[in-house]
Amino acid sequence: MGQEKTADYVDVLIVGAGISGIGMAAHLRKFCPGKSFAMLERRDNPGGTWDLFRYPGIRSDSDMHTLGYNFKPWTQQKAIADGPSILKYLHETITEYDLQDHIRFGHEVLSASWSSAEACWTITARRTDGSEAQLKANFLFMGSGYYNYDEPHDPVFEGKEDFKGQIVHPQFWPKDLDYADKKVVVIGSGATAVTIVPSIADKAGHVTMLQRSPTYMFVSPAKDRMANFMRRILPDAWAYRFTRFKNVRLQNFMFKLARNKPEWMKRRLLKNIREKLTNESDMAHFKPRYNPWEQRLCLVPDNDFFEALAAGKASVVTDHIKRFDATGIALESGEHVGADIIVTATGLKLAVAGKVDFTVDGKPVNFHDHFYYKGCMFSNVPNMVIVFGYLNASWTLKADIVSEYTTRLLNHMDATGAKIANPYLANPAAMEEEDVFDFSSGYIQRSLDELPKSGAELPWRLNQDYLEDRKILRTGPLEDGVMHFGNAGELTPTGDNTRILEAAE
Questions:
Q1: Cα distance from N-terminal residue to C-terminal residue, the chain
Q2: Nearest-CA neighbor of 185 among 75, 13, 358, 321?
């Protein structure tokens, strides 16, 4: 027998009310209208990343024609949008698809326990007041993002306690931080640092971006002229579809070109930067030691970062930190950078599946022991889908097709009477592995021992190719010889599946 439906039971439980969770809920409304669902959100507002991060200048680092949903056109003039505009877009989606009453705010998911005997997940969540709630669901959708909301990457700097000023991490930016006429040092060279520096440069006394090593940057207009032109002559939905098609293919082409012809791409990117600098000697700060797209590119919209440098309001220092002292930062070179405020834009810390404690049939799940299945499920973990967006493209591209696949899977299960869908891998030890991410970014390298595994072949390989994944998830067979369907009490993923394997043959 399956789990009896009660007030605390839903067909689909969505964890997270950010881009992924809201998108999945909208897809359920469109393609699985008979399914009951709930969304658990640990914060008091929807929006995920875009509600959490409040540092100055917070914006998208990719265009909104691909960061937006495939079902909801982005109609604003700026393709590189600020945080409040993205939040507005997400709130509009919630309203348009009537999702408000399905979100339970102030619910932090602590554990998720799967029972094959009942064909359901039991989820325990902690409410804001400290009490706990339990819900049961046949299917679990993890839209909780990929980083630790509580703890960013915060390297130890010697002498930190000696600094007399204020130290701030962008993930926890104080609402009342006064940086007017102050000397601000931003440690880091990634998207967050490149966003903060020009955003505070006009008001601060001076801003120094202190980097250990350079990052590839690319200057581009915040407005997509072609997209805005198409919206003037076509309906919004058509213009959006055209721009999304164009941008997806252009991004895919440029990524593959960078991987196949790195020297050519390197020259192109450095030429783009050289044209923006007023002092050729500054190029030393913009020549990375790695090839393009071995880490994410940093987008500089409307040249704002380089305009701040040209105006003398900001500067870049490339050096290693020796220690903090009372008045700033002493560098390995012997130089000293004075500071009233130090912003540690030192990166994120990854958290697989939102730090939830998972068990399957009483056995703890260590995701590092499991392989990705079609980039959105895990070997021998039934009825659970997760979104981990692309490193070389917009997050929502992956979220959209994973949501579409999930609705296809749910409808197939209904049509066949199955309650369990399990990507079964009989012998994980025999699986040939490859690097889960072919990226050298620090936040990836620091988490390799925690991340799930990637096989050398499909469907166990994690792709960084949206166009390939779209074919697999939209039109690929659901009954592929790997996914095993069953009912309550029939499938024990961590036990003996001999009978089911024989039946499949």
A1: 25
A2: 321
